[in-house]
Amino acid sequence: MKSKTNANTARASGMKRFFTFKRKYLAIPYFLFLVLFVLIPILIILVYAFTDTAADGSLVFSFNALVSFFTSPTKVNVLVVSLFMGLLNTIVCLLLGYPIAYLLADKKVNTNYVLVMLFVMPMWINFVLRTGATRDVLSWMGIYGGQHPYIATMIGLVYNYLPFTILPLYTTMIKLDKSQIEAAKDLGCNKAQTFLLNILPQSVPGLVSAAEMVFMPTMSSYVISDTLSEGKLTLFGNIIYLNFSQSMWNEGSFMAMIMLVLIAISMLLTRRFRVDKSQQRGAGLW
Amino acid sequence: MAKKFNRSFALSALTLVCLPSLSSCGNNAKSGVVLHVLNCEDYIDAGAEAEGFSIGDSEFSDVLTGFSDYIKAKEGKDVSIVYDTFDTNETMYSSLKTGKTSYDLICPSDYMGQKMMKEGMLQPIDPDANVPSYSEYVPDYLKNVMKSIKADVNGDGIISDEESFYNYSVGYMWGTLGLLYNPEKMASDKGISIEEVMADMTKWDSAWDHKYYSEASIKDSMRDTYSMGVMHTFEEEIKSNLASSGLFDENYELTGDWEEAVNNYNPLITEIFNRSDEASVAKVKEALMSLKQNIFGFEVDSGKEDMVKGLIGMNLAWSGDAVFSMDTADGVGRRIYYSVPETGGNVWFDGWVMPKSCTGENKEYALKFLDFLSTPEVAAANMNYIGYTSFIAGDTILDLIRQWYDPRTDAMFVFQEEEGDYDYESRNEGMEEATYVSPDGGTSSWEEYAKEGDWDVVDLTYMFSGTLSDEVLEDYPSPLGDTPETNPYLFYSSEDMSGYTTFEYEGREYKAGRQFFAQYPPQDIIPKLAIMQDYGENNKYVLAMWQDVKSNNLPLAGVIVFAVILISVAVLATVIFVGKKRQHAVKVARRKGLNR
Q1: Which domain holds residue B64?
Q2: Which of A277-281, B411-415, B534-538 has the highest mean pLDDT?
Q3: Which residues of B touch A234 (CB under 8 A)?
Q4: Does residue B235 fall inside a structural domain?
Q5: Residue A89 is part of a domain; what is its CATH number?
Q6: Which residue of chain B comes nearest to A81, CA vs CA?
Q7: Do the interacting molecules here have an ipTM over 0.90?
Q8: Per-residue pLDDT tens over the stretch B111-122
């Protein structure tokens, strides 16, 4: 008996010499994926953003794309419009999603998880299909995208991104510290004070991740604005696509890089909240 | 074109039976020649809905496997085709520039083919020597259109005849760009008469007219919309050219000699149509900016469906898409029309080109494939499937058009009550013997029926002259007579058979066209149509213009909302920051108090 065990151990240690399984090896497939499809493309974008094609087809370092972006009022304008649409969409989604998430997380009001599923269900259907349907519904209501491009696009954006705000807010709200809220009430806070000083600060991580989920995707989306504004509203995503489709890769890459920078800035701005409070609040869902 | 649909159903059933042959082509790939072909999506008679065709006694289920079978039967050689598709010319060009895949044949649009030729990506095909069917069945008009596009390919500073696009490309499909419109919808929307709408649709200006606010959708495509802007911006100049040429009447209809108009007037419109210098682009930009305020919207592919549904009343459309929309709308009882405005417009084509990488045996069979595509039987199958107009003319295509549009064919169906053989001879025989039974039970002879019809005569000499066989020509008593009975290049058209509608508005007589007009514009308007070439270096101006047109300023309300949001965020941040500092100060003070 004993000798058998020894033999097994010996075999195992023999294998150990060649290969020792460590948990971190599980990350290798994803790491490869990350390098191939995220890091290398980003590097390519950076290369194209700061180069220009010389007459003989080779790439030379240049700031032409940068100059052409910042000297073009149109492109800067599109960026401003996109920022505006992104910001407005975020705010509207949060204003609409917050009370819904609060109600859904309240066990007294909502005893069934199915209701949450119903609110999130639009996410299960392809958004191109949904947008096509939204267009039909809007034109049936008499809101023609060509006449009201901003309104139609905004309705479509809110409809599409609302589930993305409800879900992180819901997961935060469900873990609100109930005893703290009760304590606040006991200690004499009125309803407004309870909300402002207790519930709201507790749900900040959810708010932050919901906002992140909405703001940047809105800026880079273009199918929704294209379909619902009947092509009359151009967001940053459209103009990047247009440049690439016309073989203006340097200009297109520079604008794609601006998107990356904006994402980085928004991550830095929101990191504070994440590190501080989000550890166990389910805000890291996204 | 109701006949067309009946036929396609029968044939698609046949295709289902033939489907297994599709899968067998993969086996040949190893031993024989493999051709790599790149074409636009849905642009060949192949796939699940292919209709098939026959050449002589052999039946083929679709064009791609048909070619393999055809070569196998003829030479015993195994040739298979790897067929890929692209969605836009621009993505195709990008993927060629970056990709590793090389193709033997590609089918880009006119301007993109021209660009590829200029950049030296293509090798000459020399169709007169290498593609005999093409050389035989393509009318001179289309050959001349191809020959008019030239570029200094070898860079020696001289543009020779060998450097014309005709030498580098084998034309596939061609058509026009015009206005597709639904007069009934617009008339009821705007409370005006149907005739007024139809008369307005003969002018590019109508899209800018506030009368038609939010009725039109135009292409979300730089080149097509730019060309519409050019026709509007330089309209006065075009009109004065038309008048001073002495070839057109006050309604801009051709009254003079056709050849003369093609040779002398067409270069004028082509020059205007291809203006892309900075100053012209700036003018067109103004026009498109105001157009944007007046239209329903820009569309990529939704225009066809929106027209059929009746959501919009007017659409800038390519002729083949227009045919599709009109066919579909006929099916739901909606009557839409297609017009190329009276001042003229765009004629475009798509043609096969051969990249330099195609050599040896692949080149040999690629040329044979082009020849196969240019066989009238194959061209007819493609036309039937796609709905666009083939470069190829000849007997088979003549019969196809007569089946679709000649009211005499319709009459023959009434006479014989079943589908017979369609060729011209048997139709005439059938009609001579038959008696037409009108819905009220009365009977009349063929001649009486024809008179009741009030049919228009459409002249397609430019398309068919020189391509018909002697056999067909012999059927006509005097091949240059002035009725379709005597002249093979003349066609009858009637409203019932998707032809022309005549109407009067403000004392002037107009004709409105439908499918027949979209597929084969009549001889008279041909001199007013221009090819839009590659912008070359000027592409950057047009692109910048297009970005300006497509983007918008933030409206005032938006600016205010934006400012309010930014200010409130700033205030909130300060409040929180100050609040935290104060809290901290209070805590510190409290702790100090406790310590004391």
Answers
A1: 2-174+350-395
A2: B534-538
A3: 547, 550-552
A4: no
A5: 1.10.3720.10
A6: B554
A7: no
A8: 999 999 998 899
